[in-house]
Design brief:
Layout (H helix, E strand, L loop, with lengths): L2 E6 L17 E2 L2 E2 H12 L4 E6 L4 H12 L5 E4 L4 H18 L9 E6 L7 H14 L1 E7 L4 E5 L2 E5 L5 E3 L3 E4 H7 L11 H6 L6 E4 L10 H10 L4
Parallel strand pairs: 1-4, 1-6, 4-5, 7-12
Antiparallel strand pairs: 2-3, 6-11, 7-10, 7-11, 8-9
């Protein structure tokens, strides 16, 4: 069973308040994005990694890889105007590459989609997602809500039962054939992640326990948390 990882890194870094896209912010001598690639390579060096990156970011990334010495083999695919189209571009490239190599479409290959700015995902979470996806077809890691929640509507705000809600993380792992079929659907603003795209096609989504350290780094405060966590080696 082949394993693929699409790492999507299309952020412009606006919430960081600076000109450097957040995936390139350095920590411990490497950009965040490079740490993300490395954690998947350490988990399974045979998994094929495809980095989906805006075209105008690619020269800078290649320069970083040359200067720092990125040792993770990966393909680079042009990102789209939204995350949906970035993932679709990555899948289209992957299918074309498989056809070029003479691989069949009907196997049970698995593909993960992961945020480029989640460098702290653990091997245990990655492995659990892939293991369950092999039978369930569509799996996401989730963590329970900690804060109290309120729903806001035209009549004000109202408390809701937080035990009924979970926070969703990545990697989200699917049978390759299932995810590629799901991404043949027209784009909808209701597609907030890959699971929502698959679910719109009528396929159920299974879950595995996530990890609270698997944060998405999008704000300066997130960077402070990242520095406190430190990178696994």
């Amino acid at each position: 069973m082949d394993r693929y990882v699409l790492i999507v890194a299309g952020g412009k870094g606006l919430r960081m308040g600076g000109d450097l896209p957040k995936q390139f912010i350095p920590m411990q001598g490497k950009p965040l994005l490079m740490h993300t690639l490395e954690v998947f390579h350490r988990w399974d060096a045979s998994a094929r990694i495809i980095l989906v990156l805006p075209e105008d970011h690619q020269p800078y990334w290649k320069m970083l890889c040359e200067e720092i010495g990125c040792k993770v083999p990966h393909a680079i695919v042009k990102g789209g105007t939204t995350r949906f189209f970035s993932v679709k571009n990555g899948l289209d490239w992957l299918l074309a590459e498989r056809h070029r190599e003479g691989m069949e479409d009907s196997d049970l290959s698995l593909v993960a989609v992961h945020d480029g700015v989640r460098p702290f995902v653990s091997p245990e979470v990655i492995g659990a997602c892939f293991e369950k996806a092999a039978t369930a077809g569509a799996v996401i890691p989730v963590v329970p809500m900690i804060d109290s929640l309120r729903e806001v509507d035209a009549n004000g705000s109202h408390p809701v039962d937080r035990s009924r809600y979970m926070a969703v993380q990545t990697p989200q792992v699917f049978h390759l054939a299932l995810l590629t079929k799901a991404y043949e659907q027209p784009y909808s603003s209701l597609f907030t992640d890959d699971a929502s795209v698959v679910e719109a096609m009528g396929h159920a989504i299974d879950t595995v326990p996530g990890d609270r350290e698997n944060i998405k780094i999008t704000t300066p405060f997130d960077l402070l948390i990242a520095e406190a966590i430190g990178f696994r080696t």
